[in-house]
Every structure is written in C-alpha cells, then in structure tokens.
TrEMBL record:
Intracellular or extracellular location(s): Cytoplasm
Reactions listed under catalytic activity: Hydrolyzes single-stranded DNA or mismatched double-stranded DNA and polynucleotides, releasing free uracil
UniProt key word Cytoplasm: yes
Alphabetized PANTHER family for the sequence: URACIL-DNA GLYCOSYLASE (PTHR11264)
EC number assigned by the record: 3.2.2.27
Domain Uracil-DNA glycosylase-like per the UniProt entry, residue ranges: 50-211
Gene3D superfamilies noted in UniProt: Uracil-DNA glycosylase-like domain
Name of the protein in its database record: Uracil-DNA glycosylase
Family from the record: Belongs to the uracil-DNA glycosylase (UDG) superfamily. UNG family.
Gene (UniProt): ung
Main location: cytoplasm
Function: Excises uracil residues from the DNA which can arise as a result of misincorporation of dUMP residues by DNA polymerase or due to deamination of cytosine.
Enzyme class, spelled out: hydrolase
Keyword line: Cytoplasm, DNA damage, DNA repair, Hydrolase
Amino acid sequence: MNVDIHQSWKHHLEEEFSKPYFKDLLGFVKSEYRTHTCFPPESQIFNAFNYCHFNDLKVVVIGQDPYHGHEQANGLCFSVNDGIAHPPSLINIFKEIELDIGIPYPKSGNLLRWATQGILLLNATLTVRAHQAGSHQKKGWETFTDTIIKTINNQKEGVVFLLWGGFAKKKINLIDSQKHKVLTSGHPSPLSANRGYWFGNKNFRNTNIWLEDQGEKKIDW
C-alpha cells in the first residue's frame, strides 16, 4: 500500500514513514482492505492532507473515526460525500454555524470546501471496517496522527485547533496554547448537543475573529 500524501507533508513526515510501527500499520491496513470492506476508499485515506496542504494550514478539526456506513467517508473528518444523508453530528455542526454566523444550512455535507481553505479535517484513526466502529483503533494510526498534531504545533504558529468532545480535548496536551488558539466544546453528537454542551459554543465566529487578528483570510463556513 502506497502513502498517497501531498508533497508539502512528505517533507515533515518522511522519518515517520520509515518507522517500524508505520510499516506494520500499512501492512495491517492493506490486509484489511484486501479481506474486508473498509472505508474510506483506499485512494482517499490521506485526503485530509491532499486537500489541505501544510503551508496553507490555518485550522485543525480533530475527529475520532471515519464513518463506517457505505459511501459516507471521504477521508475528511465529519464530512460525507455529495448526495449522502447528513449524519447527526454533521447536522448539529451546520445548525451551530447557522446559529452562530447566519450561514444557511447547506445541501451538501462534503467539507472539501473547508479543506481547500486551509482546514485540516483530521480523524485520529484514518480507516475503519464497514459497520464496525473503532475496528482500526490502536493499530498505529493514533501514533501517526499525534505526530501530525505535534508537527503542526512545532512548525507552525497561530493555528486554530477545534477540540470537540472528550476525545479531542485530550489532544490539548500536544498543543502549545501560547503559540496557537485552542477552542473547545462538547461533541456535536446528539447526546452531547441535547445536554447543552454543543450549541452556542461560537467556535466558528471565534475562529474567524482569531484568523483576521492574525492577518489571515477568514473561513467561508
């Protein structure tokens, strides 16, 4: 299995690709895709990096696992392909954007339009077996994606990290909040949102305020 990742990231990650854990991870993923239905499609595993190049990176959103239903996952966390019904968490993300900054609820749940504006939509685990949530966790992906976060933390300045829910908030230990802007919230899942931990977080408004203060172009959410 090839690591189909944009050149702007390769420069920072070449050492990682040669480590034993990463070679074992690729072997595992190759075997899984050969023997089971897995998501996202193999050609889209590294989409988050291929559509958000390292030099353009302004915002990081951290998810946990790809969607495990057919035709949903496209390599960008929380995103689904055009024409696919919006999962509950994505529905709540769009509702909060509408509440926060007045952008109407969109027809498409494909967040490619975010990625190309400099948002890294990073799942901690980049692959999953069909209909088996968490099935590719603890195989090495988390080590790799933690390295991604550390690399961004060390090599960039003024990045906005959006940490939604308990899992994502644990990543704060990898981030220097003096160098970067960290915005947190409950998870957009119905369970968290219905308990009052999601709506009203103003993360989207505050991301753009921060970016403009840094002289960066704000995100068209």
